[in-house]
Each structure stands twice: as C-alpha cells, then as structure tokens.
Amino acid sequence: xxxxxxxxxxxxLDGTLFDAEEGIVSSVESAMEELGLPIPEGADLxxxxxxxxxxxxxDLLCVPQDRIDDAIxxxxxxxxxEGMYRYQVYPHIRSILRMLREGGVHVGLAxxxxxxxxxxxxxxxxxxxxxxxxxxxNTGNEKLGKPELIRRALxxxxxxxxxxxxxxxxVNGAKGAGIESVGVCYGCGSEEELQVAGADHIVPDTEALRxxxxxxxxxPRGWFxxxxxxxxxxxxxxxxxxxxxxxxxxxxxxxxREPGGCDISEDIRSIILSTDHMEMSSTTEALLxxxxxxxxxxxxxxxxxxxxxxxxxxxxxxxxxxxxxxGRQLGVETIQQINAPAVADMxxxxxxxxxxxxxxxxxxxxxxxxxxxxxLEDLEFFERVQKAYERLIRENRKRFVSVDAExxxxxxxxxxxxxxxxxxxxxxxxxx
Length: 432
Ligand code: TYD
Fold this sequence. Notes:
Blueprint: E1 8-11, E2 18-19, H1 21-34, H2 53-60, H3 68-81, E3 88-89, H4 93-102, E4 106-114, H5 115-124, E5 133-137, H6 146-153, E6 161-165, H7 168-177, E7 180-184, H8 191-197, E8 201-203, H9 206-213, E9 223-229, H10 235-248, E10 253-257, H11 263-273, H12 282-306, E11 310-314, H13 317-327, H14 332-343, E12 350-355, H15 358-366, H16 379-395, E13 400-404, H17 409-424
Parallel strand pairs: 1-4, 1-6, 4-5, 6-7, 7-8, 9-11, 9-12, 10-11, 12-13
Antiparallel strand pairs: 2-3
The structure holds thymidine-5'-diphosphate (TYD).
C-alpha cells in the first residue's frame, strides 16, 4: 500500500534536483563574451537559474531585442559543451527518487529548459530511469509555460499531487496546474520568495524533502566498494577521481582506508607500518590488520552503509589475503579465519582491482616517496602478493572487477567508474 502523501510528484530540474548554478552561470558568461556584450553592473547572475532564458537575457542582462536569439543560441552551445558537465546532483535526491519509485509514486519532471537538453542532462547523470515523464519546452515553438509543463508531467489520474521547485515560477506553476507546491530553499530562490508566492510547504534541505515526500519509509541500504592493488598501482589517484565523480552524481560518499579509517584503527596502522618495528612477526602483523579492520567495520563501514551512504574503502580484507596470506605465506585459509569475526557479513558489493605487474609497481615506487615497512619487501614478496590477488579474482568473479592499470589515468578512471555505476545504478543508461 502506498504510504506516501502524494501519489504523483513533479520536480523542477535546475536548483531542485541539480545544483546548476556553476554550469548555467558560466554558460551565460561565455555567451555574453562571445557576443561582445557587457554584463550589466550589479546583475546577480544566479537569478538566471530557473526562469526562461529569454526573460533573463532581456530583463537581467539587458541584451538588445535583435540579439536575443543569438545570445540564446550561443548559451546553448556553451551549455552543451561545458555547462552541463558542471552540474551536481544534490545529496539525497537519488535516494528520494528511488524511494518514490519503489513506493509506486508517479515521478515527473517539468522544466522550462529545452526538453532535449533536459533529457541529455538526465541521461548524463543516469537519472532518466527514475522518471515516468520528462517534460520541457520545445525550442522554436511557442512557450508552453510552467502550468502546462506541469500538467503534461502528471499522470492522467492521481489522488494528490505536488510540484517541487526552488523558485516562485514553480509555486505559481503548481497553482496554475491545480496541485500542491513544495518550495525548496537550497536552490536559487529564497525562503521569502517561496513564502510570498504562497508555497504550501517549504523545506530547508533535501533531508527535509525526503521526510515530507517519503515519511516513515526506510532509507535504502547503501553500498560498500573497495579498491585493491599492489603498492604503486595508482590506487590513491583513482580513489580521489572516483570519489569526486560519485559526489557529483549525488551519492553520499564516505571515503576511508585500511589499515585505519577511525582513531583506534589509525593507531594500529602506525604500529603496523612503523619502520621501528622490523622485528614484528607475520602472525602479529596479520592479527593487527584484522583487529584494525574489526573496529573499522564496527565504527565506520557498517553504520555508513546502513545510512544509505556509499563507502569507498582503500583496501579491505583482500589485502590481508594477498599480503599476509600470499606475501607472508601464512596461507589464504588462515587469514580468512582470522578475519571472519572482523568482517562478519560486511563484504564489499564491488571490489576494483587495479591490475599492474609487480615489476612495474616496484619501478613506480622507487621513484616515489619514502617506503613504509611493507613497501620495503622484495620482488618475490610482491610476486606472491600479485599471484594471491589473481587467485582471489578468479574465485570471486562476481565481486571483483579487474582494471588494467598500466594505462593513462583517464582511461583507468573511466573503466573504474563504469564498473561501479553498473552496480550502483544497474537500470541507468549512461550517456557516453
Ligand atoms: P596503503 O595505505 O594502501 O599504502 P599505499 O597508500 O602506500 O598503497 O597500505 C599500507 C600497506 O599495508 C600496503 O603495503 C599494503 C599493506 N596491507 C597489508 O599487508 N594487509 C592488509 O590487510 C592491508 C589493509 C594493508
């Protein structure tokens, strides 16, 4: 049974689903520059986000009537080439859309953007599959206006519908379409603007929006992703790029690492990796890694996944299997047994392995920073680690994705991202 207050929800795009400011403002600036027109002193460019472009170029930017078409054409070119790539999905939006879909709610989009561009933005960010209707203006035709756009994004029949938007245009559009309005203050409109327009509800952030649209619904479980590879495989760079991209797509990311990730585990890390501890036995080392992991899972990983977040972990239990099981020759089974109580059922949903030959890894490391105790090991040690990883991959094909990491950074990042997105958003079709 549908437990939600609305059985149809229509969203505005810019400033509601996406933080669009940077993308739009930079495209407007480029268009004005291309046309050789000055930006009027004191003009607040953020006000361009939301209303129809024509109005903004005429009223805010004082573009002469006979140049408005050129300004819009130039803006669109810049927007499609760069602007839309600077968009950012607001946090929680993905989980709200997912919860509405799973609750059987009709989800629509009504934007005064050109509908083809709106569709491209939605595809670029892998969001189209959440929507029953994506409605925008048709360039060249007479403007439909917000009430009509909203009407077209609604289903034929509904019990109670709401329009969610950040500007008075959205509130007025909802009134025109005869439905309720939810004003969001995190976009470009102020609370005052939304109040004056007479919004039925006003929410300060996307968490409050989730509570309003999906009261009492359980937040879907998040994901646990780990990245593995030999020292020197480029993990840190790839972790950074992946984190940045996932944040832009609106995932709530917790980036962490092993050994470490929380105070107790970081303390254990410094004991393990210290070059003062050359006498440490392999068994002590393996137990310390497992102890550090137990606390990390308990304090950081599990709570974050249960809150619906995406945990991005630099190394996890596979590192112990490869380094202590393979490298130190303690045996895979022993390491798995030691780690069983630490990991419990918290295995990664996806593990990315950055595949690089141990000889290349060593060459790269020789050019890098001061080595820690583990990095001081010899060639045979890393050969065993590599072999152990390769065995893990063969035995866990469903979880592991092996990415050739002896290529340029961008190609590796692309493969890593598509492997991760295939797991996180299997229904989405990503624009190439
Ligand atoms: P890491 O911080 O990933 O080092 P780097 O950033 O230099 O790649 O890992 C530190 C070292 O700890 C690394 O040599 C691998 C080793 N390690 C294990 O031997 N077992 C484990 O379980 C983990 C998590 C790491």
